[in-house]
Specification:
The structure is a single chain. This protein has 235 residues and is of the alpha+beta class. The chain folds into 2 domains: 89 residues, Elongation Factor Tu (Ef-tu), domain 3; 139 residues, Threonyl-trna Synthetase, Chain A, domain 2 (Threonyl-tRNA Synthetase, Chain A, domain 2, 2-Layer Sandwich). The chain contains 4 helices and 15 strands. Strands 2-3-7-6-5-8 form a 6-stranded antiparallel barrel. The protein is globular.
Length: 235
């Protein structure tokens, strides 16, 4: 199990850590600031700085087999540290921060479009959600104006935890049709945008909607009989 520093502090850019294991699957640390690919958010990239001054470039982070296990994937040709070695895990912060801004923007989009979510993805230059909704209910100018109103209002954004029983009592909090939040782990992490949105999420987010920045609806297109995709970018 890895101590997930990013879970409690999304703004932590680096942390000291010890190498637990090195396998063909990746490098496991005892603690990390690297978010592993999941929930539509890409895994982080960055470096592991070694005591001798050399660095190991990390191209991606993914989930391991155990609960809360993160594997750091070295870039091709990079040397691997040894188990027991002390390193500093350092994020590519500009990339991660864009992911945080976009991920929070998608939660705002959930609040603006009242429909079940069928899929979503964050990337460096755009983000999208797919909705089970009729096309004529999605008006680009209206969605864009509402998103930017919520951004300008600078609502606080904070993660918190609820019990499985609380989530079961409020099934409307789960917006995704195909993915259910994990239960049986002592609690469910939810993201609250004060006065705007509340739903389960394990990703990293900005601390207030004002940090998201001005948004543009890049495109709305059909992805099936009732599946509609809304793609966002930064204006």
């Amino acid at each position: 199990m890895t101590e997930l520093v990013f879970r409690e502090d999304a703004y932590a850019r680096a942390c000291r850590a010890r190498v637990v294991a090195v396998t063909p699957a990746g490098i496991e640390l005892d603690r990390t600031v690297f978010y592993p690919n999941g929930g539509g958010q890409p895994g982080d990239s960055g470096t592991l700085a070694r005591a001798d001054g050399t660095v190991v470039r990390i191209a991606n982070a993914v989930k391991g087999e155990g609960a809360d296990t993160v594997l750091h994937l070295p870039a091709p040709g990079e040397p691997a540290p040894a188990p027991g070695e002390e390193v500093e895990a350092i994020l590519d912060w500009d990339r991660r921060y864009r992911h945080m801004r976009f991920h929070t923007a998608l939660h705002l989009l959930c609040a603006v479009v009242p429909a079940p979510v069928t899929g979503g993805q964050v990337a460096h230059d755009k983000a999208r959600l797919d909705f089970d909704i009729e096309m004529d209910r999605l008006v680009k100018e209206t969605i864009e104006a509402e998103l930017n109103r919520l951004v300008a209002e600078a609502h606080p954004v904070r993660p918190r935890w609820i019990t499985d029983a609380e989530l079961d009592a409020r099934p409307e909090l789960v917006r995704t049709m195909s993915v259910q939040p994990p239960r049986g782990q002592g609690g469910v992490r939810v993201l609250e945008i004060e006065g705007v949105d509340l739903q389960p999420c394990g990703g990293t987010h900005v601390a207030g909607t004002g940090e998201v920045g001005r948004l543009a609806v890049v495109k709305i297109r059909s992805e099936g009989a009732r599946n509609r995709r809304v793609i966002l970018g930064f204006a």
